[in-house]
Amino acid sequence: MSSNHGISPAEPLPLTTWIQDRISALYQATTEAAFNEAFDVLLHQDAQIYVNGARLTRVEYKRQVQEQKLVEHSATLTFSNAVQVQGKSVDLNETGSVGVFYKATIYENALVGAGRMTNIITSSLNAM
Fold first, then answer.
1. Considering the entire predicted model, what is its pTM?
2. What residue ranges define each of the domains in the chain, with the CATH number in brackets?
3. Please, what is the Cα angle at 119 between 115 and 123, to 5 degrees?
4. 68 by DSSP, 3-state: which?
5. Which H/E stretch holds residue 9?
6. Backbone φ and ψ of 5, nearest 5°
7. Can you say how many angstroms the Cα of residue 29 is from the centroid of all Cα atoms in its chain?
8. What is the DSSP string of 19-65?
9. How many Cα atoms within 13 Å fall on the side-chain side of residue 97?
10. What is the pLDDT of residues 73-125, one digit of tens each?
11. What is the DSSP string of 89-125?
């Protein structure tokens, strides 16, 4: 008789969840090493990146995100919507296309009155 010891079989992680987790890790990274790792996991070396219709290299996009976080104390993310076109499951990951819409609120080190200065980034990311 076999037992799973109360652990249900692993299911593929939805692509929308994976993307949201990776974006959160990127904006909430508190060290350069953590940021670099999150960036590398999120974006493939050959990713095609467009910001407001302009094509950016991976290095340019990385620099842009780093500048948004330059004086970060902490960050919170809110995902307002996500859409996914299902592909197939590979190991425990789904494949396909996904689009997420989010707001990153970056609380800076500088204090203003009783609170921290904030930088609010509203963005979307489409990935395949």
1. 0.79
2. 15-127 (3.10.450.50)
3. 145
4. helix
5. none
6. 55, 35
7. 11
8. HHHHHHHHHH--SHHHHHHHHHHHS-TT--EEETTEEE-HHHHHHHH
9. 2
10. 889 999 999 998 888 777 766 678 889 999 999 888 877 787 788 889 899 98
11. EETTEEEEEEEEEEEEEEEEEEEETTEEEEEEEEEEE
